[in-house]
Specification:
There is one protein chain. The protein is of the alpha+beta class. The chain has one domain (12-59). Helices cover 44% and strands 18% of the residues. It is built from three helices and three strands, in the order E-H-H-E-E-H. It has a three-stranded antiparallel sheet. Strand 2 and strand 3 (46-50) form a beta hairpin. The longest helix has 10 residues, at 26-35. It is globular, with a radius of gyration of 13 Å. The protein starts with 11 loop residues before the first strand and ends with a helix.
């Protein structure tokens, strides 16, 4: 039986994923987070960047 994979849109990115998706470095992302230009949340021990926050930063809306 063939399985069908449904890729749902990402709602959040790890720091590593955000770096890959945005072509920005870790230090740059953490700089934006500390300056308040990029929203990030802690979930357990992980830092997650909501997709809409990363999109807003890239679009210049942050």
């Amino acid at each position: 039986m063939q399985s069908i994979k449904h890729d749902s849109p990402k709602i959040g990115y790890s720091i590593r994923e955000a770096c890959r998706a945005s072509s920005l470095g870790r230090t740059t992302l953490y700089g934006h987070i500390s300056a308040g230009r990029l929203r990030a949340v802690r979930v357990g021990g992980r830092t997650i960047i909501p997709a809409e926050a990363l999109h807003a930063l890239i679009a210049g809306e942050a």
